[in-house]
Amino acid sequence: MAGKEGKKKLERYLDDYSFSESSRIRKDGERIWIPELFCHNGHSLMVYGVRFDGLPAIHVRVEVGGEGGPVEDYYLSPIINDPRKEGKDLPEGTHMRLCCPVCKEELRQLVPCSCRVGAYRRAVYLSTDPGELGAVGICEIYGCPQSFVTEDGELLYEVVVEHG
Ligand SMILES: [Zn+2]
Ligand SMILES: [Zn+2]
Which of 8, 63, 112, 139 is the most buried (most CB within 10 A)? Predict the structure, then answer.
């Protein structure tokens, strides 16, 4: 999943983030991960039945191809820059309508993704209040690893694919 067109790399924008046992972003060793994520309506997306290295997965409901498409469940790793996920394999580049599995609403649109014209990163939030501006942006294109993490409106991490 490293992308055949470019090299994937993790940008870190803040070296002095104060990781703790209650911070919204956690770190142990080299592993940076997120313990809790929510939809814009405050529903928890974490599930314990699927785990990545012992950590609960992020559950996202997908309508394949767009609104009204076949519904699939995906479980994403909560570890930053970890492309692992569980769910049906789709052709690279498939558009996914990313939804909350509880309220079924489409996740909010954040910023465009450079992988495709018209592609957007969608928001899952670090807290139950989207107004706190802490979010993970995940791309709605299957196979695109470009994601980012913000807290208090500040960009902390970004996974980018370098072309060239
Ligand atoms: Zn919801
Ligand atoms: Zn993308």
Answer: 139
